[in-house]
Amino acid sequence: MIVPIEAWLAVVLALFAIGLVGVATRRNLLIQLMSIELMLNAANLALVTFSRWHGDAEGQVVAFLVMAVAAGEAAVGLALVIAFFRHRRSVLVDEAAQMKH
Amino acid sequence: MVEWTLFVLFAALSVGAAILVILPPMARNPLHAAVALMASLTGVAGLYLLLAAHLLAVLQVLVYVGAVVTLFLFVIMLLNLGPAELGHPKVTFAKVLASVAALAFGGLVALRLWNDPPLGQAATVDEGFGWVSAVARPLFTDYLVPFELLSIFLLVAIVGAVVLAKKEY
Predict the structure, then answer these.
(1) ipTM (interface pTM)
(2) What 3-state DSSP class applies to A92?
């Protein structure tokens, strides 16, 4: 590997920080879910990077598990967005400020 | 040299497209954000290939680009959002503060890694590293219980998604 691990971790941090900014600043639920996917991807990239550096495939196994969890999370999250949209005619989190429907 | 070129290419694709996902003027329409997310995840798949994680690169394209982003696109089409539902972009003090805090978090972790590099050189790996049998062996031995729990999790997620998205309870 010619590319040092610092460069890989810089990409990981950039992706994670972008996802964090997305969740913190965007009010659109769909974009927030996409930002969560970005952060999960950053975590996966870190796992795969360290797996390569240690020469141990277990990091990739964990990344595989994270990938499946992310797919389930997206399915349930998007179902929640649809249910929320039926109630409020909106996908903005500002509308989700009440505990009763 | 080729490795550096490919690394910069894929890293720029994944990070640049990720910025387009969250940047308000570009991602006003969630559809544009979803397409940018697709490009970003493809870039990460390329990075997996450079890290010799071949199976994960294939799964990344199949599961993320092929299934998750497509699910996003289906929901966006189903909701059929107009300008009224999307709201107007506002720059508030809280948002600026949140962005600064998030970026400061990334900067601090980067500083920590820079001062104390975690590992030196990468281990040398054999030919089959990252391909199906190398990943499947630990998955079906040491990680068998998490793997089986994952199948239950996916079943619950499927049922939960159907129940939540149903019109009437």
Answers:
(1) 0.91
(2) strand
CATH topology of domain A5-100: Helix Hairpins (1.10.287)
**Residue B102 is nearest to which of A20, A44, A62, comparing CB atoms?**
A20
- Fold classification of B2-123 is Four Helix Bundle (Hemerythrin (Met), subunit A) (1.20.120)
The residue of A39, A76, A87 whose CB has the most chain B CBs within 10 angstroms, and thus the best one to mutate to test that interface, is A76
User: pLDDT per residue over B24-58, tens digit each?
Assistant: 766 578 888 999 999 999 999 999 999 999 999 99
pTM score: 0.91
| DSSP symbol at B66 | I
Q: How many CA atoms lie within 13 A of A26 on its CB side?
A: 30
End-to-end CA distance of chain B: 59
- B26 in contact with A, Cβ within 8 Å: no
Contact between B5 and A19 under an 8 Å Cβ cutoff? The reply is: no
Q: Taking phi first (over 0 means left), then psi (-120 to 50 degrees means alpha), and beta for anything else, what does residue A92 get?
A: beta
CA B25, B26, B29, B34 dihedral sign is negative
| Number of CB pairs, chain A paired with chain B, less than 8 A apart | 244
